[in-house]
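Page 42, continued from yesterday. The earlier attempt failed because a stray header line got pasted into the input along with the sequence. Redoing it now with the clean sequence only.
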Amino acid sequence: MTGRPSKFARRALLALWLAGCATKTPPQPHYLLESPPPSPDLVGKLSFRDTTKDDTLIDLAPALGVGYTELLAANPGIDPWLPGETRLAVPGARILPSGKREGIVVNLGDLHLYWFAKGAPPRAFPIGIAKDGYSTPIGVTSVKAKREKPPWVPGESAHRDHPELPAVIPPGPDNPLGEYALYLGWPSYLIHGTNDARGVGRHSSRGCIRLYPADIAELFAEVPIGTPVRVVHEPVKLGWVGGELFLEVNPGEDESLELDETGKIAAPAKLELRALVLRAAGKQAARIDWQTVEKAAQRRIGIPAQITKPRAAAAGLTGSLR
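This time it went through. Structure tokens are written below.
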């Protein structure tokens, strides 16, 4: 018999359809930092990415908007060139550096630039920093000038390494400054784009700060001349999120360089964090989970870990990767 289904059949089909929709509901976040509550100490969120057999971390990093070295740190044991079919942690959640939160803060300790625009939430951008044998000054300066399509004038060290370089390289695909540059009060040090995204999130420059092309375009459009710039080195940071204290431990200076060059850290230097943690915890010091602190200090994956024991025994979300 054909024709319109009975009222009972229509109800049964509707029930099946609703059940099918229910199975497609996205899973709820398992980690607090996948959907963090508003916090003055945190920017961004944690996410995950499934890889294929053809992926490499150096190609995935720009696509995911994170740096290559931080992606390595967040996924210890993963072969950067042959990760295979696995699940990567994408370390988009960052605790803000200590000190005054205004203008631009560059943290060499986590390879990020933080932009504190007036009246807007802070933003974090992965950066390329000085390679072995070079450095960026630690201290305070400001943006002295801005230039779109800047020419590159190679310095003495660049000519020493590459005598074939001309005196000036005009804008274009061979110009390592990319499309935009912010000139600082420190001569020869710039915040700029790049013609090779693979150098972002790595130790790749002679002291300048490199950003992904889209990130420097965003920053260039918003940052006025005179903006203060503070450069720090803080691989260890602490901040409060949802009433809990979080600890972010990144590889140290030598470890970050080793990770960039070899894909792993052979023997991490010992870290003593007790005084730093107690100072940040204040009156909540009795809630510190020292086992988690020690684990974060050993792993150094750059993902903030909750180090206070929850007030309620049944917490719906966990704060760190276990």
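Notes: The radius of gyration is 23 Å.
Reminder to self: strip header lines before submitting.
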